[in-house]
Amino acid sequence: MTNSPTTMHAPEYPQSAFKDDHKRFGKVAPYSFHDYRHTLEDSIRDILEYDLEFDLSTKWTDIRIVLGFLASIIGIGGAVYGFLVPFHESKAGVTASVIAYLAVSAITTYITLFIEDAKVATGKRVDPVGVEPPVTLTVASAVDTASPNCQLHLTFHARAGARHAEVRATAPLEQYFTTSGELIAVRFYRDVVAWIHDTVRQTGNE
Predict the structure, then answer these.
(1) Where does the chain cross the membrane (predicted)?
(2) Tell me: the pLDDT tens digits for 141-187?
(3) Are both 53 and 124 inside the same structural domain?
């Protein structure tokens, strides 16, 4: 007997959590493409978590917090050591603390600029009946400001066991905002849900 895969359903927009939640974003200044992008990325995270029931990962945020505490401890420790110990005795230790501080700061900067900046979210969804393996979905974004309409590029990558699937989508940023800077939530919700469903479906889990 073969078990059929369970289907991941999203609520219709009028019944979605996103219908009311998106209002917290407020208006975006016209042609502020940076703010457009971040509003849409926040929207994707909300849709994943509240409407599609993905458990979002905070891995890189947690790592940055730990690194921040570590940098603070190194900086304060080096300063206190240099203050309490004569210079000729403490200079090696202070130098080491400065190098360690710079190294930790460099790692934090790398995570922020080259990992988190491109990655919108990573989430996992478990099959409630346990038939299919969990689906892990990663969403990445990039903006092409050289394009006349400033294109938003989204990449959806899903993994379910040994099965992988990827869907790429491109749309003008302004397509999802009114001329006054309000998010056209219903349009973005429907597009994002369709892209996510298409990606997950290709893994065999929908």
Answers:
(1) 65-84, 96-115
(2) 998 877 667 899 999 999 998 999 999 999 998 899 998 889 999 99
(3) yes
